[in-house]
Write a structure and sequence with these properties.
single chain; 512 residues; alpha/beta; Rossmann fold; 11-stranded mixed beta sheet; two-stranded antiparallel ribbon; 13 helices; globular
């Protein structure tokens, strides 16, 4: 009898504890919600480009579409943005650095080519291969233009698709799903293979979120024989994994269900002065990218367990060891460590280890490369681009071949800029001469602003953009090395007797 009474009392105490714990969680949740509501109301108001969502083709429609249909839908999207945003701007928004004002320095249609749109580069002669180029999140095909020209110079047709919800208005990212991007990738590859059939090589180049899409497509092609297989992947700062915050980013948008708190649907609301990239960022963008990386990592692990990764094409990846946007570690632990010995390579750009910056860098950066890489031998080639020593800005390439344990070193004809302490996520696709992002822009490559040359000094709060964004390195001093390595892998995929096109000015076409 006493034992029964004790059990009843124990269950009663457990129920009281559970009730109090649930109450505590509710209080914490309400407190966090209130904090988020208050925080979201700070900063600038929502503008037309934050509230107008143009209608894009969804995944099912993309799978049923061809390239001309996609370009037709793209034209309709840009016409809607002009009609609903540009033509309805009020006085305060008609300023020289608003990309949506037709009198602006950075109004994209005023340039010789609007790189927000999908484009195709044709080689001078008969094509020897085809490459599909996929840009990153908040980005546009602009980030792929230098790579497109490199492949075209080797005789490839280069097809750069504008992924759904990009290149138009940041609000478009509030109403997109990652499956739409995957379907757009399939459409681009279908068109690539229509233009240049097998057995001529098919390459896929992906930057950031586009890198995740390139890998996802290659994995899907291992399961679906209807999907043309790529002969090589080239990834630049690929989004194989991102920060844990993105897992809970969707919760921060909950207050936006009420119109009065619509700003809670945004992680960042900033002036739109970049002609080819959104500055503002909705919560849904982070959520969709996170969901894509989760699906991707699970698929890699599943294929590895079943031995299916033996069919993966060789992968060449360029990645900065310091990357605030994507996880460098995840590229290795969630992808490269699973790859078979198929000729893949990982290139890591180290921090500037000269004595000028050494004492200022976080101590963890001293052993970053060693902690990232598993001990050799590895099934993939590793190349580390770093200083020759702490007293020199001269750059060397430290290479460990796949299956080897001995490191080889070669001096490169490159220097680490003395005032640059590391590359960044966004820097890798752009040479120093890039007209928009380059540290030494080509005057003939004019896009209204030279964002890469701005070294802002002054009082905080005076600029319309976060100071951290102005400090972020936006071009790559090692871009010539990237092109050299890309040239090598392109040549390796071409038959010995295949003709190559001479480097001539690129031609642009959007025709079927």
């Amino acid at each position: 009898m006493a034992a029964g009474a004790g059990a009843v009392a124990g269950r009663s105490r457990l129920r009281r504890f559970a009730s109090r714990f649930a109450l505590l969680l509710a209080v914490v949740a309400l407190t966090l919600l209130a904090v988020r509501i208050v925080d979201s109301q700070r900063g600038p108001p929502l503008e037309r480009w934050h509230t107008f969502v143009p209608e894009e083709l969804d995944a099912d429609e993309l799978d049923a579409a061809d390239w001309p249909r996609y370009l037709e839908a793209e034209d309709a999207v840009f016409a809607a943005v002009r009609r609903e945003v540009t033509e309805k701007l009020e006085g305060d928004d008609r300023v020289p650095v608003n990309r949506y004002f037709e009198g602006s320095l950075v109004y994209p249609p005023r340039f010789v080519q609007d790189f927000n749109r999908s484009f195709v580069l044709e080689p001078a002669g008969a094509p020897v291969g085809v490459v599909v180029l996929l840009h990153g999140l908040t980005d546009s095909p602009y980030s792929q233009r230098h790579f497109a020209e490199a492949w075209r110079a080797h005789g490839f047709v280069a097809l750069a698709i504008r992924l759904p919800a990009h290149g138009t208005v940041p609000a478009a990212l509030a109403d997109v799903e990652w499956e739409d991007w995957v379907a757009a990738t399939r459409l681009a590859v279908r068109e690539a293979r229509r233009r240049v059939p097998a057995p001529r090589p098919l390459h896929i180049v992906g930057f950031s979120n586009g890198g995740a899409l390139a890998v996802k497509y290659a994995l899907d092609a291992l399961e679906d024989p209807a999907l043309p297989r790529a002969d090589r992947l080239v990834l630049v700062s690929p989004m194989i994994g991102i920060t844990r915050f993105a897992r809970f980013a969707g919760l921060t948008a909950l207050p936006a269900r009420f119109p009065a708190f619509a700003k809670a649907a945004w992680l960042n609301i900033t002036a739109e002065f970049n002609p080819f990239k959104y500055n503002s960022f909705p919560v849904n963008g982070a959520t969709q990218s996170h969901d894509l990386t989760i699906a991707l990592q699970a698929q890699v692990a599943r294929h590895a367990a079943k031995g299916k990764l033996e069919g993966m094409p060789p992968v060449l990846t360029f990645q900065s060891v310091m990357d605030f946007t994507v996880s460098t570690r995840a590229i290795i632990t969630a992808f490269y460590n699973f790859l078979p010995a198929n000729g893949s390579e990982l290139v890591l750009f180290d921090v500037n280890r000269t004595s000028k910056f050494g004492p200022l860098l976080r101590r963890a950066s001293e052993t970053m490369v060693e902690r990232l890489l598993p001990p050799p031998p590895r099934d993939f080639r590793t190349s580390v681009i770093t200083n020759a020593d702490a007293r020199s800005t001269t750059v060397v390439k430290r290479v460990v071949e796949a299956g080897a344990t001995i490191e080889q070193q070669r001096v490169l004809a490159l220097e680490y800029p003395i005032d640059v302490f590391s590359l960044s996520h966004v820097a890798l696709p752009f040479p120093m001469s890039d007209g928009l992002y380059g540290l030494r822009p080509d005057p003939a490559d004019d896009f209204g602003l030279n964002l890469g040359t701005i070294a802002a000094r002054g009082e905080i709060g005076a600029l319309v953009v976060n100071m951290n964004a102005m400090l972020r390195m936006s071009s790559n001093p090692f871009f010539p090395f990237m092109l050299e390595r890309i040239d090598e892998v392109i040549a390796a995929d071409l038959p010995p007797a295949a003709p190559t096109a001479a480097p001539v000015p690129a031609t642009e076409t959007a025709s079927p």
